[in-house]
Amino acid sequence: MPPEFAGFPAEGLDFFRKLKRNNRREWFQPRKQVFDDQVRKPMVELVEAVNRELVRFAPEYVTEPERAIYRIYRDTRFSADKTPYKTHIAASFPRRGLKKHACAGLYFSVSNKELEVAGGVYMPTVDELRAIRLHLMENHEEFRRIVRSPKLRSLMGEMQGECLTRVPKGFPAGHPAEDLVRGKQWLFFLSLDPELARTAAIVDELVARFKALKPFCEFLNRPLSPAKRDPILETGGPIS
Predict the structure, then answer these.
(1) Which residues, in sequence order, are CB contacts of 74 under 8 Å at separation 6+?
(2) Distance between CA 214 and CA 181 in Å, rounded?
(3) Sign of CA dihedral 23, 24, 29, 30
(4) Residue 100, Cα to own-chain centre: how many angstroms?
(5) Which of 63, 105, 62, 107 lies closest to 89 in space, CA to CA?
């Protein structure tokens, strides 16, 4: 059995504090080994520890570290912020067989400022957006029961996400699910004390929240399975 994850070393979180002040290639490159040893290596171990727990209650979300962990390098092509490096390290756990960012998945990130935990749909494509909206119209009562779960709300707070001001084109106004259909994202997001990342308790904290998030993610992923896709989605109908 692999050893239990003991937490990030103090040098790991301190690396992000220093990177924030020195976010340039000339500073990072000579210290890349520090990043690899004190940040990326513990992150791989943490993802492996989370995966061992996901096997018990959400095996479809188990994701190998190489796929789960995001690169430290920022994509600056379309950003006003041209600093080359992220000042956190993050991992996501999409549902097996679905597109990584378009489906509902589990996520966490670690920095010297916070431990972020999230779950849901963040960047759906046109097809996924329409499929989820149709699913919400037909199953809105079930969805409301899920998001009002005392366990989910106690661990993750209230559902968040961008919404349209009006019902999207092609969907009826006045439907009982109108408020849900106006959504462009459906997610829960929470910020925790970064000191948790330095302890073994981070695994239990993440796993408890991922367990509470699973029914929410499963609901949103249900219409995204290739076997469940509505033929109308292939017409590329208008989506706001």
Answers:
(1) 81, 83, 84, 85, 86
(2) 21
(3) negative
(4) 10
(5) 107
In the chain, the DSSP E strands lie at 89-94, 105-110, 115-121, 186-192
Q: What is the DSSP letter of 160?
A: B
Give the DSSP H/E element, type plus range, for residue 36. Answer: none
* Amino acid of residue 100: K
Q: Which two tokens stand for residue 8?
A: 């990030």
124 to 22, 27, 63, 128: CA distances (angstroms): 34, 36, 20, 5
pLDDT tens digit string along 13-48? 999 999 999 999 999 999 999 999 999 999 999 999
Q: To 5 degrees, how large is the angle CA 40–CA 41–CA 45? A: 115
Specify whether the CB–CB gap between 130 and 233 falls below 8 A. yes
3-state DSSP: the chain helix, strand, coil percent, rounded to 5?
50, 15, 35
d(CA 72, CA 189): 21
Tell me the pTM: 0.91
